[in-house]
Amino acid sequence: MQLSLIAFLLCGMGAILTACAPLPPFTASTPVRTPWPVAIDGITVRTEGAFVLVSLAYANPTATPLTIGLQQWANARTHLDDDTHNSYTLMTTYGIGYGDDRQDWLALAPQGHATVSFLFRAEGPIATAPTRYTFTSGQQMHSGDATPVVPFTLSQSVPLEVP
Predict the structure, then answer these.
(1) In b/e form, how buried is each residue of 26-35, taking b as 16+ CB within 10 angstroms?
(2) The pTM is what?
């Protein structure tokens, strides 16, 4: 009797599902990466004890001058992670500033190139040395005179550069 009841319920569900409109075919999609509003020529990571230096090479392929700055609260918006789960603190930057004062921002001439650096310190580094880092930085860009400031986020995974 229980087997008959289960068979009846399964057949009933099958009839209901058959009567429903067919589902659209499943398609897997890869996430579309939003292009950065500035060209990145390269990124390198070098280590010295508990210190990690990230160098980022910008390029301006346009005919308009660009200024690029870090978003407010640079230490909260610019992160470094690694494959061993160390925690890092941004100590200082060279070549790029943050905040509303664009005087501290990186100025890129038309067709120009520039390199900026970010110095991080590992907080309580573990014995296993990292081999891959992920650099994430909230930045803002101003192009020309009349355009508004555009916020964007760089995120790049990079292997450790061995000298």
Answers:
(1) eeeeeeeeee
(2) 0.73
